[in-house]
Write a structure and sequence with these properties.
Elements lengths: L1 E7 L2 E6 L2 H5 L6 E5 L11 H15 L3 H7 L6 H13 L3 H11 L2 H8 L7 H11 L3 H10 L3 H10 L5 H18 L4 H14 L3 H10 L2 H8 L1
Antiparallel strand pairs: 1-2, 2-3
Helix pairs in contact: 2-3, 4-5, 6-7, 7-8, 8-9, 9-10, 10-11, 11-12
Length: about 220
C-alpha cells in the first residue's frame, strides 16, 4: 500500500507500505518530497513559507490581487526565480509577468521585451524559460504555441556537451523542419552543414550543403 500521509509545506510526506519496501534493509517507509510550487525553496524561513502558501491559495481561487499582496514583502531574487519557474510550468502567464517585475534580472527583463515579437502567450513563456535555463520546458511551450520555427531555432542553438548530443539536436531540427517548418528547411540544412564542416565531417557537410541548394545559388551567381 502506498499513499499520502501528511502535508506540511514545503513537503509532502508519503507512505510506502509495500512488502518489498518494508523488508528492505535501508528503505525509508515514510518519505518526503518537495511540493511542486516550492521546488528549490525547501530552506526558506517560516514567514516566507507562510507568504508563499497564501500566494498559492489565492491564486488557486482566482484572487490574484490578494495573491500579490501576500508576497509583496518578499525580496529574495532566487525565490522569485523559482516562483517564476513554477508559474511557467502551470502556464500562469500573469504570474510570470509579476515574478519578472520582482526578479531584478536583466536577461529575463530582456526576454520580456521580446514578447512583442511573438503573438502566442506560450511562446512568451518559452522565451522566459530559456533565460531561466529550462530548454526542455521551452521546447514544450514552443510546441504547444504552434511555433515550430522558434523550436527549430532552439534546437540549433542548444548547447551540447558531446558531439553525439549535438548531432542528435541537429537531426531533430532537420526532422522538425521537414515535417512542420518547411519554410526554414533549406536554411536548417545550410546551418547544419556549417556545423559539420566546423567539426571536420566534410562528407556529411557536402550532403547538407547540397540539400540546402546553396551550390545551385552559387553556380547561378557565377
Amino acid at each position: 500500500m502506498q499513499g499520502l500521509l501528511a502535508i506540511k509545506a514545503p513537503f509532502l510526506y508519503t507512505f510506502d507500505g509495500r512488502p518489498e519496501a518494508l523488508s528492505g534493509g535501508h528503505h525509508q517507509v515514510v518519505q518526503h518530497t518537495v511540493m511542486h510550487t516550492f521546488a528549490g525553496m525547501q530552506d526558506i524561513d517560516k514567514q516566507t513559507s507562510q507568504a508563499l502558501l497564501e500566494f498559492s491559495y489565492h491564486l488557486a481561487i482566482g484572487d490574484t490581487n490578494e495573491a500579490y499582496k501576500a508576497v509583496k514583502l518578499v525580496r529574495t531574487p532566487g525565490l522569485w526565480r523559482n516562483l517564476c519557474l513554477s508559474a511557467i510550468r502551470s502556464r500562469r502567464h500573469q504570474v510570470v509577468h509579476f515574478c519578472l517585475d520582482n526578479m531584478e534580472d536583466a536577461l529575463c527583463a530582456q526576454a520580456a521585451r521580446q514578447f512583442a515579437d511573438v503573438a502566442e502567450p506560450d511562446a512568451h513563456l518559452a522565451l522566459v524559460a530559456l533565460q531561466l535555463g529550462e530548454p526542455e520546458e521551452a521546447k514544450k511551450l514552443f510546441t504547444s504555441a504552434g511555433r515550430p520555427d522558434l523550436l527549430n531555432r532552439l534546437l540549433q542553438a542548444r548547447p551540447c556537451t558531446t558531439s553525439s548530443q549535438a548531432l542528435g539536436a541537429w537531426d531533430e531540427a532537420v526532422k522538425l523542419a521537414e515535417s512542420s517548418d518547411r519554410i526554414n528547411l533549406k536554411a536548417t540544412h545550410y546551418r547544419f552543414a556549417q556545423h559539420l564542416e566546423a567539426v571536420g565531417d566534410y562528407a556529411a557537410a557536402i550532403k547538407h550543403y547540397q540539400l540546402s541548394d546553396t551550390h545551385r545559388q552559387l553556380t547561378t551567381t557565377n
